[in-house]
Amino acid sequence: MVTPHPAPTRARRARSVPLRHVAPGLLRDPVRALVGFGERADGEVVRLNVGAFRPYLVTDPDHVQQVLGDRADNFGRAGDGAFWGPLRRLFGDGILGDGPVWSDSRRILQPLFTARRVESVLPRMAATIVDAVAELDAPARAGRPVDIGAEQARIVCRAVMETFFGDRISAADALRVIQAQDAIATSVIPRVLVPFAPLALPMPGDRAFRDAARRIDEVLTPAVRAARGSDGDDVIATLWRGSTADGRPLDERQVRNDTVAMVAVTTETTVNVLTWLWPHLARSPRVAARLQEEIDSVAGGHPVGPEHLPRLRYTRMVLDELVRLYPVGWLAPRQVLRPTTLGGVRLPAGATLLVSPLVTQRLARHWDDPDAFDPDRFTPERVRARHRYAYFPFGGGPHQCLGMHLFYLEAQLIVANLLARYRLRVRSPRLPAVQLAAALRPRDRVELDVLPAHAGVVA
Ligand code: HEM
């Protein structure tokens, strides 16, 4: 049922939070500055006074629920507004958009990522992950440190390209796409920071963005064309077989747009978020010991497969805590479609709302000691006691993330297999700084020494 929209008449204007309160920190420590905005809002819908750009910040779980879920029909994701406008130059219309085109893409892609469907590909995915992890034997033998972000990218690309893209894109090509995505993520920052600048106005980063988008198309367009008319239950063949609500087949543009989007979301999300795990474990020896103990007792030093996952409960809690602190989809901007009110505040049509799991998930009014890494926040009792939208790393409502099941199962397999086979030691326990690009990503590399967990590993 759609909740009626409150009449805009009796509402008040939003309180304004001026930029000078937080500007000094915005460049130095953007996460702290954004959470600072959220703390100042104190649960109200407030207006951020960022020069010409004056979006509304929505932090309270009840309000988030209305925007993303209950009243999502009045808060659109489409438009050339904050964030999505610049990214549309790469992803076009499709699964990362809104309206009828998005709805066709969502209906076609959703069945590929249900819990059941992901579980059905798990045996194959687990075998690939076990193999890809074992390639770390070489640096372990040589005593050579590894860049764990690069290793995770290698492991994820192999696992996902095989199971969701039917090997139509080689792991090497997928790594090339990831490199171009890295360039996209950083070159789009000026436009994310100055969201009111028209796209026609040249800005720093535009050329790098265009070059990277071209490199992505050079890899993915041939794969898209080759898959036309073929069988298979992979992402690209499924898109070609899909049709619009009025029965027309998708055109090449939409298949291309959705392929580019799905390669991006299946790769950089998991790769980026896992990078923070290792320094956090080094800084929280009790968490590290409990995680290791669970993996050892469940898998007994053997490769970890799908049959072990239901018993890796603490591993799952560690991942829950990781995406609380580092929700890759850190910002979900929305546009008000018809005048309405939210939390007693008047919202005109066209206004931009900023909903951010990064902010709500670090607010002291909802989380004790919010910056501490504490997986025990995710015991079933504590989860039940919390508002559904105090924690929404995967969004909610009609645009809820398609990849949630994939993320948890894949990440559990990667982490558990790494720790079943090796002892990983970070060279520095310093946490990588957070870069707020199109997705949230670590600004610094994390280097690890790889030691064999038992004598059988490095013969
Ligand atoms: C740590 C991992 C991930 C996080 C934190 C995450 C987070 C999110 C969030 C917050 C949204 C909602 C955006 C909005 O409401 O505007 C979203 C959407 C989406 N995610 Fe994820 N995601 C992750 C991994 C994945 C993976 C592995 C996939 C692969 C299938 C994926 C596919 C998608 C898609 C297709 C959408 C758009 C859905 C739609 O608009 O209908 N995500 N994700």
TrEMBL record:
Matches recorded under PANTHER family: CYTOCHROME P450, CYTOCHROME P450 12A4, MITOCHONDRIAL-RELATED
Molecular functions per Gene Ontology: heme binding; iron ion binding; monooxygenase activity; oxidoreductase activity, acting on paired donors, with incorporation or reduction of molecular oxygen
Binding annotation for heme: 401
Family statement: Belongs to the cytochrome P450 family.
Protein name according to UniProt: Cytochrome P450
Family matches, as InterPro entries: Cyt_P450, Cyt_P450_CS, Cyt_P450_E_grp-I, Cyt_P450_sf, Cytochrome_P450_monoxygenase
Matching SUPFAM superfamilies: Cytochrome P450 (SSF48264)
Organism (species): Micromonospora carbonacea
Keywords assigned by UniProt, alphabetized: Heme, Iron, Metal-binding, Monooxygenase, Oxidoreductase
Cofactors named for this entry: heme
